[in-house]
């Protein structure tokens, strides 16, 4: 029983990281109705920025805040310079551009920081008071950071006028424009938030996986599965889906299919959801007249 509880808790810890990345994917999807295939590489690049600041002697939490701000600006710049000109482009063209962004950020990370594996420190001391037998201090700290991030984003979207404007722009851009909402700026803000959320996920997962340009490849696949399971158009559903995928991956990988088949499990979840419930558990079905 103790081993089962340990695997369950570890699954929740991993699911917290998947939930963060799934949330970033949903933010971009709501802004563009496309999946940003480069989200994982952008998060990895952000983690490398944090690593470079730490190597320069910057205190961890100051480097953390600076990386989040830089990643926000990076996401907003990508939307302004690359995505915005493609608003009326064919869908296939947008997909190709997102794949190109993946290659660009991956190559830039290797070119600037090298392709060798690097250690990334955890901000949480090993002997912290909140340690437990089921989870490491870093896992518990990462869960706390993820929950705090989700709570702040939920409060921003639900309780602030700017968050309401963002939701209106994502829901119906034409109607929002008629009401005076600067849709282009709101979409740029959404991309910026996605970049910042991805940066947090990258910095939380780097101490566990070690830092290299390939670090987030598997995480992005699990996050995509979590976003689909919860609902690709529902931020809350993305968080729930990320936690579900984390627990399922850990329990099934340990007791049923083995660790070698953990990654294909994400592909099976993606295909199953797309075939039987495309809207996800908490997503809504959108019907358009054509």
UniProtKB/TrEMBL annotation:
InterPro entries: ABC_transp_permease, BCAA_transport_permease
Main location: membrane
Residue stretches spanning the membrane: 6-28, 60-82, 94-113, 133-157, 187-209, 215-232, 239-257, 263-287
Lineage: Bacteria, Pseudomonadati, Pseudomonadota, Betaproteobacteria, Burkholderiales
Pfam family of the protein (one): BPD_transp_2
Similarity field: Belongs to the binding-protein-dependent transport system permease family. LivHM subfamily.
Topology class, membrane: Multi-pass membrane protein
Subcellular location: Cell membrane
PANTHER family cross-referenced by the UniProt entry: ABC TRANSPORTER PERMEASE PROTEIN, BRANCHED-CHAIN AMINO ACID TRANSPORT SYSTEM PERMEASE PROTEIN LIVH
Protein name: Branched-chain amino acid ABC transporter permease
Organism: Variovorax beijingensis
UniProtKB keywords: Amino-acid transport, Cell membrane, Membrane, Transmembrane, Transmembrane helix, Transport
């Amino acid at each position: 029983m103790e081993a089962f509880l340990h695997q369950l808790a570890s699954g929740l810890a991993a699911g917290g990281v998947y939930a963060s990345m799934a949330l970033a994917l949903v933010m971009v999807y709501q802004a563009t109705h496309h999946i940003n295939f480069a989200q994982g590489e952008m998060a990895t690049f952000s983690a490398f920025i944090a690593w470079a600041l730490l190597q320069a002697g910057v205190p961890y939490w100051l480097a953390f805040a600076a990386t989040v701000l830089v990643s926000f600006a990076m996401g907003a710049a990508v939307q302004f310079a690359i995505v915005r000109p493609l608003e009326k482009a064919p869908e296939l063209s947008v997909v190709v551009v997102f794949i190109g962004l993946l290659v660009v950020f991956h190559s830039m990370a290797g070119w600037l920081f090298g392709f060798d594996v690097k250690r990334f420190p955890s901000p949480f001391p090993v002997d912290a008071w909140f340690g437990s037998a089921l989870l490491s201090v870093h896992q518990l700290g990462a869960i706390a950071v993820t929950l705090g991030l989700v709570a702040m984003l939920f409060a921003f979207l639900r309780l602030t006028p700017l968050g309401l404007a963002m939701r209106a722009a994502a829901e119906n851009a034409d109607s929002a424009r008629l009401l005076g909402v600067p849709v282009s700026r709101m979409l740029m803000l959404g991309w910026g938030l996605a970049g910042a959320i991805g940066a947090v996920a990258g910095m939380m997962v780097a101490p566990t996986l070690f830092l290299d340009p390939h670090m987030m490849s598997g995480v992005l696949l699990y996050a995509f599965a979590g976003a689909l399971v919860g609902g690709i158009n529902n931020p809350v559903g993305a968080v729930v889906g990320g936690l579900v995928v984390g627990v399922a991956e850990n329990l099934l990988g340990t007791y049923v299919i083995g660790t070698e088949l953990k990654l294909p499990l994400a592909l099976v979840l993606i295909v199953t959801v797309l075939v039987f419930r495309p809207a996800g558990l908490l997503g809504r079905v959108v019907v358009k007249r054509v």
